[in-house]
Amino acid sequence: MDVVVVESPAKAKTINKYLGRDYKVLASFGHVRDLPAKDGSVRPDEDFAMSWTIDSPSAKRLSDIAKAVKDADGLILATDPDREGEAISWHVLEVLKQKRALGGKPVRRVVFNAITRQSVLDALANPRDVDMPLVDAYLARRALDYLVGFTLSPVLWRKLPGARSAGRVQSVALRLVSEREAEIERFVREDYWQIAALLKTPRGDGFEARLTTYDGKKLQKLDIKSQEQADAIKAMLEGATFRVRSVEAKPTKRNPAPPFTTSTLQQAASSRLGFSATRTMQIAQRLYEGVDIGGETAGLITYMRTDGVQMAPEALDSARRAIGSEFGSKYLPEKARFYSTKAKNAQEAHEAIRPTDFSRTPAAMRQYLDADQARLYEMIWKRAISSQMTAAEIERTTVEIEAVNGTATAELRAVGSVVRFDGFLASYTEQKDEDAEDEESRRLPEIRSGEDLVREAINVTQHTTEPPPRYTEASLIKKMEELGIGRPSTYAAILKTLEDRGYVTIEKRRLTPEAKGRLVTAFLESFFERYVEYDFTADLEEKLDEISDGKLSWKDVLRDFWKDFSGSVEGIKELRVADVLDALNEELAPLVFPPREDGSDPRICPRCGTGQLSLKLGRYGAFVGCSNYPECGYTRQLGDPMNGNGEAGGAENGTRVLGTDPYTNEEITLRSGRFGPYVQRGEGKEAKRASLPKDWTPDSIDYEKALALLSLPRDVGKHPETGKMISAGIGRYGPFLMHEGSYANLESVEDVFTIGLNRAVSIIAEKQSKAGNGRGRGTPAALKELGEHPDGGKVTVRDGRYGPYVNYGKINATLPKGKDPASVTLEEALELVAAKAGKSGGKKPARSKGAKKKA
């Protein structure tokens, strides 16, 4: 018997059905080792030695694999056919060698591009060794990312409080998004006018022609700049005669696009289906690993992390048969189409993403798939099948028309097109070509050269230029691919990292940089410019590709990089924060100091009139403040909109007077600061301030609410047993009661102002009772039981004080932002638990003997 190691349980289950009793298929659950998240995991001074750690769940699985291998005839490593898959095989092999589990038994590496019975059996018949150049490329990338992150991030924390971290490729992607936002801010709108004539042929057929030339001058888009100029041209055309100068009907052919690669799949799924890159890859993973089709488990698509655009010969034959049966012989070209990849990273240039069996049509598979899986599979099937279909035949007609009014002349043009034969368009139309139907609907009537035309109307329309659009996930991935930044397997992770760190927000599928994201970009551009340059990052990616081809030594690449990078970091460490702020004030001037409506200096403090506004750095990030602090306490959050006076605009951001304190006669105001909205009594350093509770909006704050907040903490009454005062207040973690230095949570903010002594005593007694029983705050009830952990014990999803989380024993792993608790799978939960355990030092959660039963 041979032991086969794959990444996921789903993949293991499918392959086990193909191989039978002579093989034991085990899952590694992804990577089994990682670099510890602490200094010293990569040591440049020791020739880039790397320390690896194994978390508790992985240790258990590796022990199971080692035990199975000791009793087996050999080991087959069948992880994914890319750099990450090769790395997982290498890690497993290294651990087994350390455990001395192999004992001279044969080790084979097999790869298959699709999880089908034939693909797996063919792979087993053609084994090879672990590809060490591919592993070296993985090690180099992992070391580079670690060195940049763990060297640059501490500099960010010291010089730019509130910044989370900086990544090697993520920082360059963030620069793209930030630069687009700056481009939008600098954009100056311009008005322009367009003129079109509605004309009729002698046979009474109407059509539209647009003005292209006036008085011998060709008109560009913005050449008609005023209503007066447009009206003058309109008057000339209304008195003109129109004659057809030429008619040209030009047949063209449009060829199909190649099958999907990783990036084109993510782009198409975003624009057509509204899927994020992460969601697209999750669904594709399920389609690749296998779906139950009437009792048989089969992978429906080939491997989804690829830059390749070619299909295997047997797939071409299958596609051609499907075209003949589904569309007819006229849609089948004489011979198969062949595409060549433009990707430079040969280590990932596998087959394109395609169906494993073209006879499994989307209609036939829909009953076995959920809605999202069916939509993605249909798109993959149609794109792949269309790539082997005949070209679309389109006739494009261009009519040139001359208008004469005395000595004044003008030229107009009418364009129309019609699809004479749809070809591959019968299967798949690119999203960018969706306007083709509009062109077809504008099909021109019969127009003859030299004939006179009748004017029906002259239409003048006003337009305004628009700034470039913000990036979508699809357009950002496309741009990164064009620049050579990142690789197919990294795009989804890059975008998710930027969102998780709060550097960008995604709304209506558009990426908008947050103030902290633009701050990080400005800092890196000012002090680490080389390392966020597009060419530098792309060149480093090419070197990683050359490592995987065996053309470069991975440690030579690391030495060259580290020599310059470490020197740059050392130079910045001694930089004063004042120098950093000066550079950022200059770099981010449009964001920090937007122009004022009255034209006054945007850097003069609007409150005191003498201080200079500047970026300030606080514990929680950057904000704008006055140089006359503490005498002038003007602050506003970075990126807040301004009104005409330079104050933060709107009720939510501006200073609003609510009334006067009845005891001190000080003014009570509602303000917005770097920590959010708050109420304040008085001015200066001694002013009393209170932040708004989480569920209170600035619009809801009135005089009475402000007085109540400023009166906190509130004395509820003396405890009848201790004689000590019980106070109610609002803290960092919400509303609370305090008695003798101990705290008890309250259910709502309103309780702080209304709770009586009897109920307060009861809540404190209940809290003390729980503490006495060793139960603390208590464990929330499980929302969902996911199943059994490989080490024993149940894995559940619970809703805690700070949101939903996965629980296993004493490990609580917070769910990613936006993740629906009901959609969490056991596999996802195990990964979260493993990651959390790794951050805790890899210790297995301590559990009592009855913990398994109690969980």
What does this structure look like?
With 855 residues, the protein is of the alpha+beta class. The chain has seven domains: 2-130, Rossmann fold, CATH 3.40.50.140; 139-185 and 471-579, Topoisomerase I, domain 2 (Orthogonal Bundle), CATH 1.10.460.10; 191-249 and 394-415 and 445-464, Topoisomerase I, domain 3, CATH 2.70.20.10; 262-386, Topoisomerase I, domain 4 (Orthogonal Bundle), CATH 1.10.290.10; 593-710, no CATH class; 714-772, no CATH class; 782-854, no CATH class. The protein is built from 25 helices and 32 strands. Strands 7-8-14-13-10-15 form a six-stranded antiparallel β-barrel. The protein has a four-stranded parallel sheet with strand order 2-1-5-6, sandwiched between helices. Helix 5 packs parallel to helix 18 (554-573). It is globular. The relative contact order is 0.09. The model is unreliable at 345-349, 433-440, 641-646, 648-653 and 842-855 (pLDDT under 50).
